[in-house]
């Protein structure tokens, strides 16, 4: 009996190469063929084949092969009750046969070329535990495949299952993701963009002609008084419009998403904004030009901010500008009441708010990103959304039938009847999964065996506190106070800060924590009035605590405001970011105590807050045991920590593929801190994208964390994933990541294998 064993290293390399093929290829057939070829070569088998299951026809169709007859691809089909491949699909489990011809289910398909082979190994391609295809290998000589080889095949199957389920929906499409528009456009083709809101949708294209921020005529035939009056009228009407949008969204989305428009109102009611416009009008300019000029100045300022979250806030400013100009006679663009998929160069938050979410089945645009408010609203309304290049956008015409997948960024233009039917099947599965997810919203977060995990929310805006209860958050694990500062034109006063923090605190039940992080600002993330100098590498520069320790006035005002806002509450925590060493901690505590004493001397009650450190600098974690006696809790900032450990800027597209918080090196350093905290019974939480990554949340629990903070809307998804694993399974995965895995991909594959069990 011939038995060839693969080493663990060789198996892992195969998985890495499959992943590389999937991520670099843009053609489904090409991807599957390369995968089959690579499996045959690396596993040293004589044939490999990939089959896709057509539920409508109840047939398995050969989609790719090395070793079987090439002409059989897309030509040979079999029923699930036929042959060994059909048996794998029927039973949805791996099947290994030493001598194929002796098996009772063996069936010879003369046009496929299986008859010359002896041994067989087949594994199902599973999506949501439903078999949608089969991956098989054959050998000329008898061969017993090892348990590790079977697991390897199962893992490869999980990697390509999504591709078979989604990319192969588009049967017979000429499906390069890049269409050459200089040639005649095919009847059916696909595009791939950036998915910004998950979900699938079907419908006819509804092309939106929009208003724009083109520069209006500067001169005015009217008096300054008349232009000022026109501006004030437009301002009042726009505020009324926005209040109407908020009312319209009530009941459709969480209060938080609807409250996005409160920021629009606050911006319009800001005295500095109004004074700037009236100043330009006072110079003899038209009201429309004055509005355009002020908005344009703000947009330039925001375009220089590197933080994508803050940069996307410019869309809100543009939204306000377009609406104001509309009330001065400029074109606005009408939102259709038809059913279909909205196609527009730019979709603003107000566009999303004006649509009928029961009729709009998807959104395709060429501007905005994942963190834009328009994308946030689309996700809240469960509308799939995709961002593509403007050149592609122009090739979609009014009335074109479209199928979209917001998760993969896939657009099928003029899909075939089969593709429409397949997408319809996905829509049914999507609705079923969303219904299942909804039940986790108000449930506590528990592992499969009942271990309690506390899930908190990250908050950047006051309005975001309105969604905490809706998604079942157990407090605020991180309030990013710098966002409030950046939205202003000057440093806020003690009184204004106190009022803002008090509103945040009062929105949270007194038995839930509120963690307020002091200003985390740098040259990459600051408003113009703050006076930050441009730095070559702002992530490693004069930022956050490093700046505040040398110029403590702003920090002292902020600490005093937090202390005053916390009066009568015992749940407020103070968090200092970007700590590197013990000296900084002691310096910050000294400033904190100084602030308390000054308030007490002025006759105020200044409560004693719990003080924590945000660990995001690796050096601080390595000496964290020396800091434990100085602090009350620890928080891990996984986004920056990952960048610093891996020496990668995640905003740099040339190296962003290296960025993955599940890299074993990142997990090792998190475990180091968790161990130090456990030894002295120190509370520890993690904030950042890693917590809201379902895979990341599982491994964090395995590393010993019991408190995670994330975007509130992702809490149900994490609760669902956590319920699928026992604590011992999470710990086993963590142990593998710490002691065996060499890459983030290996860690994710380990989690995936557990998930399928």
Description:
There is one protein chain. With 757 residues, this protein is of the alpha/beta class. The protein folds into four domains: 8-169, GAF domain (Beta-Lactamase, 2-Layer Sandwich); 189-207 and 337-438, 3-Layer(bba) Sandwich (Glucose Oxidase, domain 1), CATH 3.50.30; 224-326, PtsI, HPr-binding domain (Enzyme I, Chain A, domain 2); 451-756, Alpha-Beta Barrel (TIM Barrel), CATH 3.20.20.60. It contains 29 helices and 23 strands. The strands form three sheets. An eight-stranded mixed β-sheet has the order 7-14-13-9-10-11-12-8. Strands 16-17-18-19-20-21-22-23 form an eight-stranded parallel beta barrel. Strands 3-2-1-6-5-4 form a six-stranded antiparallel β-sheet. Strand 10 (340-344), helix 12 (349-354) and strand 11 (360-365) form a beta-alpha-beta unit. The longest helix is centred in the first third of the chain and has 26 residues, at 224-249. The chain is globular and about 90 Å long.
């Amino acid at each position: 009996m011939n038995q060839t064993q693969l080493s663990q290293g060789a198996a892992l390399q195969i998985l890495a190469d499959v992943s590389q093929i999937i991520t670099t290829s843009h053609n489904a057939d090409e991807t599957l063929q390369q995968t089959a070829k690579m499996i045959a070569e690396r596993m040293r088998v004589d044939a490999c084949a990939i089959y896709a299951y057509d539920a409508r026809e109840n047939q398995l169709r050969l989609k790719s092969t090395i070793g079987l007859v090439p002409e059989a691809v897309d030509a040979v089909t079999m029923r699930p009750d036929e042959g060994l491949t059909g048996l794998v699909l029927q039973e949805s489990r791996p099947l290994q046969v030493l001598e194929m011809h002796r098996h009772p289910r063996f069936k010879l398909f003369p046009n496929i070329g299986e008859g010359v082979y002896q041994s067989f190994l087949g594994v199902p391609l599973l999506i949501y535990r439903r078999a949608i295809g089969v991956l098989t290998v054959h050998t000329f000589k008898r061969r017993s495949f090892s348990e590790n080889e079977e697991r390897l095949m199962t893992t490869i199957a999980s990697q390509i299952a999504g591709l078979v389920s989604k990319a192969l929906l588009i049967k017979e499409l000429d499906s390069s993701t890049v269409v050459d528009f200089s040639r005649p456009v095919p009847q059916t083709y696909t595009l791939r963009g950036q998915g910004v809101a998950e979900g699938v949708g079907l419908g006819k294209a509804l092309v939106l002609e929009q208003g724009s921020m083109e520069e209006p005529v500067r001169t005015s035939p009217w008096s300054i008084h008349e232009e000022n009056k026109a501006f004030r009228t437009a301002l009042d009407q726009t505020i009324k419009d926005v209040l109407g949008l908020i009312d319209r969204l009530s009941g459709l989305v969480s209060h938080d998403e609807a409250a996005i428009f409160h920021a629009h109102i606050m911006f319009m009611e800001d005295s500095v904004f109004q004074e700037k416009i009236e100043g330009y009008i006072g110079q003899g300019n038209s009201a429309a030009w004055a509005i355009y000029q002020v908005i344009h100045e703000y947009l330039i300022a925001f375009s220089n901010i590197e933080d994508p979250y803050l940069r996307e806030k410019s869309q809100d400013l543009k939204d306000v500008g377009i609406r104001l100009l509309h009330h001065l006679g400029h074109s606005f663009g009408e939102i259709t009441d038809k059913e279909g998929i909205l196609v527009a160069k730019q979709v603003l938050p107000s566009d999303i708010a004006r649509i009928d979410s029961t009729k709009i089945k998807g959104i395709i645009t060429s501007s905005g990103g994942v963190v834009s408010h328009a994308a946030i609203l689309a996700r809240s309304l469960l509308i799939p959304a995709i961002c593509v290049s403007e050149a592609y956008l122009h090739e979609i015409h009014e009335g074109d039938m479209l199928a979209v997948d917001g998760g993969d960024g896939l657009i099928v233009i003029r899909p075939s009847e089969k593709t429409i039917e397949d997408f319809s099947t996905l829509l049914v599965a999507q609705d079923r999964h969303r219904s299942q997810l909804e039940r986790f919203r108000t449930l506590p977060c528990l592992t499969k065996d009942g271990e309690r995990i506390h899930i908190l929310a990250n908050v950047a805006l006051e309005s975001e506190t309105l969604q905490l209860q809706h998604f079942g958050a157990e407090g605020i694990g991180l309030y990013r106070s710098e966002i409030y500062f950046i939205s202003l034109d000057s440093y806020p006063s003690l009184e204004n800060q106190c009022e803002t923090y008090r509103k945040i605190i009062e929105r949270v039940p007194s038995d839930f924590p509120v963690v307020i992080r002091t200003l985390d600002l740098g040259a990459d993330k600051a408003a113009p009035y703050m006076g930050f100098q441009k730095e070559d590498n702002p992530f490693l520069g004069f930022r956050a605590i490093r700046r505040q320790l040398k110029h403590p006035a702003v920090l002292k005002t902020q600490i005093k405001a937090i202390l005053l806002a916390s009066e009568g509450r015992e749940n407020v925590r103070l968090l200092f970011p970007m700590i590197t060493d013990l000296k900084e901690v002691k310096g910050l505590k000294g400033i904190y105590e100084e602030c308390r004493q000054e308030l007490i001397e002025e006759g105020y009650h200044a409560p004693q807050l719990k003080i924590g450190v945000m660990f995001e600098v690796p050096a601080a974690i390595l000496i964290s045991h020396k800091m434990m006696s100085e602090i009350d809790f620890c928080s891990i900032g996984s986004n920056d920590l990952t960048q610093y450990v891996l020496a990668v800027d995640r905003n740099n597209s040339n190296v962003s593929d290296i960025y993955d918080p599940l890299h074993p090196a990142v997990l090792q350093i998190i475990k180091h801190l968790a161990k130090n905290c456990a030894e002295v019974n120190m509370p520890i939480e993690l904030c950042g994208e890693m917590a809201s990554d379902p895979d990341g949340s599982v491994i964090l629990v395995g590393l010993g964390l019991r408190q995670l903070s994330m975007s509130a809307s992702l809490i149900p998804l994490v609760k669902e994933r956590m319920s699928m694993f026992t604590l011992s399974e999470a710990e086993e995965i963590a142990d593998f990541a710490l002691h065996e895995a060499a890459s983030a991909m290996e860690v994710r594959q380990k989690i995936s294998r557990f998930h399928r069990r």
